[in-house]
Amino acid sequence: MAQKITSCKDVALRLQTYLDGELDDKRMDQIRAHLDACIDCGVEADTFREIKSDLGSLAQPVDADALARLKEFSARIVNEAS
Ligand SMILES: [Zn+2]
């Protein structure tokens, strides 16, 4: 049975730090591996990246729906994970 080293909760809690590149190399690798293996977290990472690039370019307002969905997802993961 394959076991994930990093849980969805770990990823949800560290995703922003991960995308900022501020984790140590070991954690970066663990989260990268999780995002490759876990569709839910991979989609959230993509949403985060889009929001961050929107903020960076200031070309367009942040998608409010995406932000709401993101908050919902994080809350759900943190509450569900044991
Ligand atoms: Zn996950």
Give your account of this protein's structure.
With 82 residues, this protein is an all-alpha fold. The chain has one domain (8-80). Helix content is 74%, strand content 0%. It is built from 4 helices and no strands. The longest helix is centred in the middle third of the chain and has 19 residues, at 39-57. Bound molecules: zinc ion.
Key features?
82 residues; binds zinc ion; mainly alpha
How many β-strand stretches? 0
The end-to-end span amounts to 19 Å
Average pLDDT rating: 83
Element order, helices and strands? HHHH
How would you classify the helix and strand content by structural class?
mainly alpha
The 3D shape can be described as globular
Count of the domains: 1
Number of helices: 4
Bound molecules: zinc ion
Largest sheet: none
- Given as residue ranges, the uncertain stretches (5+ residues, pLDDT < 50) are none
Radius of gyration: 13 Å
Any chance you could write out the topology, listing elements then pairs?
Elements: H1 8-19, H2 25-37, H3 39-57, H4 64-80
Helix pairs in contact: 1-2, 1-3, 1-4, 2-3, 3-4
The chain binds zinc ion (ZN).
The site of zinc ion has 6 residues, from helix 1 and helix 3.
The gist of it:
With 82 residues, the protein is mostly helical. The chain has helices spanning 8-19, 25-37, 39-57, 64-80. The protein has 4 helices and no strands.
